[in-house]
Specification:
Rossmann fold; Arc Repressor Mutant, subunit A; 2 domains; 5-stranded parallel sheet; 20% strand; binds calcium ion
Length: 233
């Protein structure tokens, strides 16, 4: 498998180099940018699998960079972890509202950073490169596309992550809390009913194809993904 490519956006050279050194040692391919402008150029020319974005940057804030990438259809699926020196709740919430997939508070250990990166990559389906087939659905992680009977069905980024998680873990019942942890991540302050909202959107997207029935409600327990034919009686 190829090494996931991480773009480190941080203007303080010693910090950036220390992160690059540790991530390189952990098996990642690394690009470095010292400003938002440099980051945008690198994202366009050598698309990373994940961005690490520092909050404080010289030309614009890391939050602004995150927001603008997440608003851009070409880049909205790029996972972003924000680095922040601010431990206050407010900045975490702002970062996640801006579209960041997770945040890490400085100072952090190399081990913690690598663990967070791997968790976000896993949730985003990076590293899973073989197509996953379930019934009439075919998920192509390399292309970040869902095909139904060979035809592409566009999905929102959250619905894609949700379906990707389900298709990697079929026939198992997951509680809303487990789905939140696996699809959104442990550090996200959202309510469990958000899961229901995105399940409904996913079902709606799958409705016309008949694959809606794969996303099953298990009363009192949560949800299960199953492409098996329904049991008679
Ligand atoms: Ca900085």
């Amino acid at each position: 498998m190829k090494h996931p490519r991480i773009l480190i956006v941080e203007d303080e050279a010693p910090v950036r180099q220390m992160i690059a050194f540790n991530l390189h040692r952990a098996g990642f391919a690394i690009d470095e940018a010292d400003s938002c402008a440099a980051a945008r150029t690198l994202v366009a020319n050598n698309r990373p699998d994940l961005l690490l974005v520092d909050w404080m940057l010289p030309d614009s804030s890391g939050l602004e960079l995150t927001r603008s990438l997440k608003r851009d259809d070409s880049y909205k699926d790029l996972p972003i972890i924000m680095l922040t020196a601010r431990a206050e709740e407010q900045s975490k919430i702002l970062g996640l509202d801006g579209g960041a997939d997770d945040y890490v508070t400085k100072p952090f250990s190399a081990r913690e950073l690598v663990a967070r990166i791997n968790a976000v990559l896993r949730r985003s389906g990076v590293g899973v490169s073989e197509p996953i087939v379930a019934g009439i659905l075919e998920l192509k992680p390399d292309e970040h596309r869902l095909l139904i009977s060979g035809k592409e069905l566009p999905l929102g980024p959250t619905e894609y992550k949700l379906l990707s998680f389900f298709m990697q873990h079929p026939e198992r019942v997951y509680s809303r809390e487990q789905i939140l942890d696996n699809v959104w991540g442990r550090n996200v302050y959202i309510e469990e009913r958000t899961v229901d909202v995105h399940i409904q959107r996913l079902r709606k997207a799958l409705h016309d194809s008949g694959a809606e029935r794969y996303v099953q409600t298990v009363r009192g327990a949560g949800y299960r993904f199953s492409a098996e034919p329904e049991q008679a009686g």
